[in-house]
């Protein structure tokens, strides 16, 4: 049977520990978190499909010029007359937050009930990302990058 001196055991332990630390240890890589928002009617209630799997659906908020506020088609509140958030015309917003993904290459598809789509391909780094689609302008903003993104198109984002 092999017997190591305390000094050799300590050196062996430190060697193993240092080799683990140099490999990154046992820490999980930091994920990517995405908040996805739509400004305007188109895609404001779209399904969100990531890498071919449904990840959720945008929550649609609609504020009418008379102050009625709808969430996913249900009258939720009535804003008082003169409230600063009452729009001149119907104001649609869609949001899904807390999408957590492994950092890396992903394909995000927005799909409406009537079949309109927008495909976003991105190599997503770890950390938090705000992605906003502006329906009226047909633009996509990913953090600070802004791209043309008309319905039916596929855009490649390099965040």
Label this structure with key terms:
159 residues, mainly beta, eight-stranded mixed beta sheet, 13 strands, 11% helix
Explain the overall architecture.
- The structure is a single chain.
- It contains one helix and 13 strands, in the order H-E-E-E-E-E-E-E-E-E-E-E-E-E.
- By secondary structure, it is mainly beta.
- The protein has one domain (28-157).
- The longest helix is centred in the N-terminal third of the chain and has 17 residues, at 6-22.
- It is elongated, with a radius of gyration of 24 Å.
Question: What's the arrangement of secondary structure elements?
Answer:
Layout: H1 6-22, E1 32-39, E2 47-50, E3 53-57, E4 59-63, E5 68-71, E6 74-78, E7 91-101, E8 104-111, E9 117-124, E10 127-134, E11 139-142, E12 145-148, E13 154-157
Number of strands: 13
Question: What is the string of helix and strand elements?
Answer: HEEEEEEEEEEEEE
Mean pLDDT: 88
Low-confidence stretches: none
- Cα shape: elongated
Number of helices: 1
Q: How much of the sequence is in beta strands?
A: over 45%
**Alpha-carbon distance between the two ends:** 58 Å
Q: Main sheet?
A: 8 strands, mixed
Strand order of the largest sheet: 6-5-4-7-1-10-11-12
Give the helix level as a range of percent: 10-25%
- Give the radius of gyration: 24 Å
| Overall number of structural domains | 1
Structural class: mainly beta
Give a quick rundown of the structure.
The protein has 159 residues and is mainly beta.
């Amino acid at each position: 049977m092999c017997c190591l001196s305390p000094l050799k055991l300590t050196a062996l332990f430190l060697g193993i520990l240092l080799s683990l630390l140099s490999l990154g240890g046992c820490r999980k890589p930091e994920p990517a978190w995405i908040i996805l928002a739509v400004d305007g009617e188109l895609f404001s209630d779209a399904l969100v499909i990531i890498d071919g799997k449904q990840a959720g659906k945008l929550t649609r908020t609609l504020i009418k010029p008379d102050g009625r506020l709808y969430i996913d088609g249900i009258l939720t509140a009535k804003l008082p007359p003169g409230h600063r958030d009452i729009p001149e015309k119907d104001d649609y917003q869609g949001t899904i937050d807390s999408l957590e993904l492994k950092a890396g290459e992903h394909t995000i598809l927005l799909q409406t009930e009537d079949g309109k789509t927008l495909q976003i391909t991105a190599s997503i780094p770890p950390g938090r990302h705000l992605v906003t689609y502006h329906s009226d302008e047909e633009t996509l903003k990913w953090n600070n990058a802004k791209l043309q993104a008309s319905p039916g198109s596929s855009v490649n984002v390099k965040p």
